[in-house]
Design goal:
4-stranded antiparallel β-sheet; elongated
Length: about 200
């Protein structure tokens, strides 16, 4: 046992006395020349990638070049698309589920559009009625009462608001149609088949 411990201590001493394997850094400089350096890679060359080699020229590890701005943009776009695809699959496990959601949303929007058109028609009828009253006053040679003009101006403001609301709902319906169509195409692509 005594002899084994001495041998172990001797072996550890030899290993400690052996210099560690020196590492060299191999990279290309601006002129395209291969540089070997014991100190490391200068910061301006790190992004181009480099290799760490031993004294015998064996590659210990390779550090790839930093991705270009275009590669980074593509990675971000791919990650964004993967998240959107996962969300789409959570919302609609099947194309039929998307079709049901589309039908419900468009039906609801169509109902709101019908109400908005009704509101617009009602305001337009009231404006027409007040305009006729004002015209009758003028035909009779009487001035149009200020209250009537004020009421007419208020109704015209309501009419503009009703028109804007109708247009907003119609545009929302169109965007919904477009979004559902794009989602359907993507979902069919993700699922790999048309159910």
């Amino acid at each position: 046992m005594q002899m084994g411990n001495k041998l172990l201590l001797l072996l550890l001493g030899v290993l400690a006395a052996t210099p560690a394997q020196a590492e060299l850094y191999r990279y290309l400089n601006r002129q395209g020349v291969v540089v070997l350096d014991r100190q490391g890679v200068p910061p301006e060359y790190v992004g181009n990638g480099y290799e760490v080699i031993d004294e015998e020229g064996r590659v210990l590890r390779a550090v790839p070049p930093a991705p270009s701005a275009e590669e980074l943009r593509q990675r971000v776009a791919a990650q964004r698309q993967a998240r959107a695809d996962a969300q789409l699959r959570r919302l609609y496990p099947r194309v039929a589920d998307l079709e049901v959601a589309r039908a419900h949303q468009l039906r609801d929007l169509d109902s709101l559009i019908v109400v908005a058109r009704g509101n617009l028609n009602a305001v337009q009828q009231r404006v027409l009625g007040l305009e006729q009253q004002a015209a009758e006053q003028q035909r009779a040679g009487q001035p149009v009462p200020a209250a009537l003009l004020q009421q007419l101006e208020g109704l015209r403001g309501e009419q503009r608001q009703a028109e804007a609301e109708l247009q907003r709902l119609q545009e929302l319906r169109q965007r919904s149609e477009t979004r559902f169509a794009a989602d359907r195409l993507r979902l069919v692509e993700i699922l790999g088949r048309e159910p």
